[in-house]
Amino acid sequence: MDSHTESPAHSSGSPAHGSVDTRAVHAGRDDLTDLGLHAPPLDLSTTYPSRDAAAEAARLDAFTEGKDDGGPPVYARAANTTVRRFEQALAELEGATAAVAFASGMAALSAVLLARVSAGRPHVVAVRPLYGTSDHLLDSGLLGNTTTFASAKEAPSALTGATGLVVVETPANPTLSEVGIQELADACAPVPVLVDNTFATPALQRPLAHGAAMTLHSATKYLGGHGDVMGGVVACSEEFARVLRQVRFVTGGVLHPLAGYQLHRGLTTLPVRMRAQSTTAAELARRLSGHPGVSRVRYPGLGGAPRPADQMAGGGAMVAFEVAGDAPGLIGAVRLITPAVSLGSVDSLIQHPASISHHIMDAGSRADAGIPENLIRLSVGLEDVEDLWADLDQALDAVS
Ligand SMILES: *Cc1c(COP(=O)(O)O)cnc(C)c1O
Fold first, then answer.
1. Surface-to-core class of residue 85, CB atoms within 10 Å of its CB (0-12 exposed, 13-18 middle, 19+ buried)
2. How far apart are the CA of 35 and the centre of ligand 1, in A?
3. Residue 322 forms beta bridges with which residues?
4. Which residues are catalytic?
5. Which residue's alpha carbon is nearest to atom 12 within ligand 1?
6. Which residue segments constitute the domains of the chain, with CATH numbers given?
7. Range list of β-strands (E), the chain
8. pLDDT per residue of the chain (400 residues) written in tens, 0 to 9
């Protein structure tokens, strides 16, 4: 897929049978009533019996080529009927023709990189900042890739004949900086652009509608939404999905069926959670920017700052801020907010990127990515805004 015009990644218009809210509840479940079921079946089979060896051989050939016709999977490393439901639902929400799920967000990114390296396009242009381990994976070249880090503006001039992928996060982890997807995709065409959509989720932003060839999620975060399941997923064209399934089949980074079940259930409340958590995050960002213990707040559109037009609904549920006092100390001073890495859960989580989420990068790379050492990242949950503010306010006073 060297051109994202070869095979459409983006399915037509809005989801079938209604809005994103409606489809979040019903996607991947449309056959349940006819099956006489309410909850999707949890399929824990590792193998799928058949008396017809020749037919099984033909099915395996198809799986080896990355095709999945929805029939019996033969073996659980090829496919799983519960995980398929999550993939189908996520593809629908992203407006994609296909989605392929993995054991984690990093397994998903690894599969994308292996797919591009094996296609003879090992060079990646990556727009910083990115999640720390993604930055490290790209920078280390562990999977045979090479990477040029560039700003969104410089990205087109960093492309070479060997470039197989442009990687961007918007809003980015951890600074919440935004990139105009359509402008980047147009300027980098025909090289496919991957948007890590973990922070916005398809409830607020659908990158394929803005020219991205694929979106990637750490499903561990908002898609699961409750801090109790790990997963990753890529939404893209069926053509690229076949390559990703081939990679998944041979490398084995499959999503566990129980995780697939939990992620599929998580999608049902995703739009409601994102709206509620975003409303609280916007209010906390506003209050933080008036706090004397805070030197700078990062939140999309805060104070009327310019944003990419018509790209993301609202500012999302993540807030980042620089503290004037002891940044790591703040993590130890919160009492209600959970002092932990990760994000996207129903409870609020706070962490110090230089110590945890972006610790794997060296200080020079963090500086290049524009991640200050005194930056704090807050994932806003479903608690009451006044309770969260009281906790932040007392913690900031304690370290100022
Ligand atoms: C957490 C995260 C990842 C990695 O996902 P895992 O599920 O932890 O492997 C990738 N991108 C972003 C933006 C993340 O926040």
1. buried
2. 35
3. 296, 375
4. 77, 131, 196, 221
5. 131
6. 3-268 (3.40.640.10), 271-399 (3.90.1150.10)
7. 98-102, 123-127, 146-150, 163-169, 193-196, 214-218, 232-236, 294-298, 318-323, 338-339, 349-351, 375-379
8. 444 334 567 665 445 567 999 999 999 999 999 999 999 999 999 999 999 999 999 999 999 999 999 999 999 999 999 999 999 999 999 999 999 999 999 999 999 999 999 999 999 999 999 999 999 999 999 999 999 999 999 999 999 999 999 999 999 999 999 999 999 999 999 999 999 999 999 999 999 999 999 999 999 999 999 999 999 999 999 999 999 999 999 999 999 999 999 999 999 999 999 999 999 999 999 999 999 999 999 999 998 989 999 999 999 999 999 999 999 999 999 999 999 999 999 999 999 999 999 999 999 999 999 999 999 999 999 999 999 999 999 999 999 8
For residue 186, the CA-to-ligand 1 centroid distance in Å is 26
Using the 8-state DSSP alphabet, how is residue 11 labeled? Answer: P
For residue 54, report the distance from its CA to the centre of ligand 1, in Å: 41
Enter the tokens of residue 45. Answer: 């089979």
Say which residue the tokens 């099956």 belong to. 35
Determine contact, residues 366/354, Cβ cutoff 8 Å: yes
Phi-psi region of 66 (alpha: psi -120 to 50; beta: other; left: phi over 0): left
Cα 189 to Cα 196: distance, rounded to the nearest angstrom: 18
Ligand 1 centroid, distance to 197 Cα (angstroms): 10
Q: Which residue has the tokens 């090479």?
A: 146
Give the ligand 1 atom nearest the CA of 198.
13
CB 384 within 8 A of CB 331: no
Mutation choice for ligand 1 from 110, 131, 223, CB with most ligand atoms inside 8 A:
131
Mutation test residue for ligand 1: of 198, 214, 223, the one with most atoms within 8 Å of CB: 198
Ligand 1 neighbours (beta carbon < 6 A) = 104-106, 131, 134, 169, 173, 196, 198, 218, 220-221, 230, 232
